[in-house]
Predict the structure.
Amino acid sequence: MNMPLSHDPAPNADDISRIIEMAWEDRTPFESIQVQFGLNEAAVIALMRRQLKRSSFKMWRERVTGRATKHAALSSPDMTRHRARHTRQA
């Protein structure tokens, strides 16, 4: 089991790639990223800002800002998530 990124100052490329993938997914709330990687919403935003091109970051921010599905507390309890086979199972 991987340690949360908050304990690892230099996340590996695979973790960064997966965090970016999860951040782009509509149905993956920031809380799931925090549980799996130890990064809160602000840290995910900072990582996305560093890793994406400026135009891609701007597009992503516009996409997720105000989106209820990106926050577990705002999401419908009836919402189910699709899990791809390549994702980590918690």
Notes: The helical segments are 13-24, 30-37, 41-51, 54-64. Residues 8 and 38 are 10 Å apart (CA to CA).
